Amino acid sequence: MKSAQLVQRWGVVSLVMCVLLLSPFSLAEKNDLPELYKKWLEEEVLYIITPVEREVFLKLETNTERDLFIQAFWKHRDPTPGTDVNEFKDEHYRRINHANRYYGRREPKPGWMTDRGRMYIILGEPNDIQRFEGSGTVYPTHVWFYQAMSKKGLPPGFNLVFFQQGGVGQFRLYSPLADGPQALLTSYSGDPRDYMEAYQYLQQFELDLARVSLTLIPGEQAYVMGRPSVSSDILINRVEGTPIREIKDRYAQKFLEYKDIVGVEYTANYIDNDTLVKISKDPSGLYFVNYAIEPERLSVGQYENKYYTTLRLNGVVSDQDENIIHQFEKTIQVEFDSEQMREVSQKPFSIRDMFPLISGTFRFSVIVKNEVSREFTSSNCELLIPADDGRLQMTSILLGYRMRENIPSQGRLRPFQARRNQIYFHNNQIFVRGDDLILAFQIHGMETPLLDKSEIRYTFFKDELEFRSFSKAVGEYADLPNFVEKISLEDFMPALYRVEVTLSVEGQDIFSGKEEFAITHMTGIARPWISSKLLLSPQDPVYAHVIGSQLFNSRRYEEARTKFEEAYQKDPNNNAFVLSLARTYYALKAYGKVVPLLSPLVSQAEVPNYDVYFILGLANYFSGDLSRAIQVFNQTISHYGINTYILNALGECHAKLGNKNEALGAWEKSLEINADQAEIRKKVEILKEKK
After folding, report:
1. Cβ-based burial of 509 (10 A; exposed 0-12, middle 13-18, buried ≥19)
2. Fewest Cβ atoms nearer than 10 Å: which of 394, 556, 654, 688?
3. What is the mean pLDDT of the segment spanning 393-403?
4. How far is residue 268's CA from residue 67's CA, in Å, rounded to a whole number?
5. What top-level class would CATH report for the domain 273-389?
6. pTM for the full predicted model
7. Tens digits of per-residue pLDDT, 420-436?
């Protein structure tokens, strides 16, 4: 944004130069690049690389990372990514070679650095070239004409003019405002500030050149208040910014963010997505995070008449101190037949899921990896889960285009479901005229005395002006705390809208929520193909265990104990529930409760989890049963081998029992594994002095 503002203020200034001036990296840092990569950055892609891409590239530390980034750079410009040929890359290097061959022969610098070379690399071959040379009246001048570039945000037709200032040196890019017709004339003795006089003089000798001397845009009003308009300079700036506007450079930031996480085979293949996240509260009191991810595309493999891929989904919820509170991994197997594939290929693919979450402020990150195409996408957002304290609370609004009512769920959960009503939506929140707009939200804490005094007001804004408003009494909604309203969009013209939903009690506004949506000119939209599964009932003990784990990770051990005890009481044979409860008792120093919980597990036929042995051994140690602790630690070693934690704990047990040789042996073995243990080394020295 700053670069664009500077360009508009300064007139004809290369956007590339603005990028260089605004770059946060010093010349020394650029000089640290190996020559191969320095040439790529400062010569080969200078005119087409975005500031974000440049910044990311300069932050890379290894040549492997740079190679992968360059691969990603070209991949995100490839018009046919499914083929082995990258037409954009091939054409770009053809243009560089052409510029060096034809525009650098009589110039003091290589062709790619000249004004003509720069414009040729950016725009390619002109539709027409007029040359004005050898007349003696005007300096050598070339006029390039381009058309059919409206998709690039440029006029349907426009000219670029290059001239030899003073008849010598390189061909400079001409500006009607900065140079004027007088700069093209070899012998003009009129007022240098009188553009119209110079134009009329030029018109006598070169009519076609005179036509482009005041404006580069055919048909434009060229003369404003005694000077050419700024439109031509704005055009030049837009031309120079074309390669930057055309590319979505978010992939570069994701490359830097995930290069150490997703694996090298994925880093060059970031694809964008639309993500929607909404919070809902179940009648059980649990808050759920509902999320939907729509990747930019779904790439699949083919075997005979089947189309398939495997998606790996990894989610992480962290608190404000970056402690991981909750994480999950899911595998989504996708398989279509030929008919389904034809349908899916014309629709977005939406992954939808939900999970419970404790109260607090968190950051939610999710990565989706496609194992067939080695593509990945990711999303991050902030989550605020309110405390369930009985106060009035309103969830955010979900906007849907269709609703399926009275779905039999047998008490099980579906993402984005308002009790027994399933809301169908598109992440981009775009609708067509004739759609129904479904608004779904929840208001909690509505006590009975408030119902007859409260109303919900719906206000629609179009272009920031109020478009429509209506109100309904809260008592008219039969399925509280769920509010679902259906509104026809038949009278909504294509535009951007905002809807505000306000709760009013006795005429006083309490709080409101708002969402934006758009009505398109199109008559139809391809709605998503949804991948979603029915989840367990909220009464299932797995939810108590999940919430307990989140509380434990938040160090809210007493609250975690309550949830883990609830899960254990419902399913005492679930070893994961047993271990989690034991771990919480241990954190609360209730060692006497740990031993009876875990002891049965170490005697079962199946080898228990490592943590079962380790926590049981420590609990016996702190309970004073040192012999039993030694026995458990030795069992741990027999199953899982040695490590410093086990050896140090074993040494402590033997030292307390007075077994100096055994303690010394355990600690010395630990120091062999990790010599950087000052406290253990000190204990060894003390023991040796006492021998």
Report:
1. exposed
2. 688
3. 94
4. 9
5. mainly beta
6. 0.79
7. 789 999 999 999 998 99
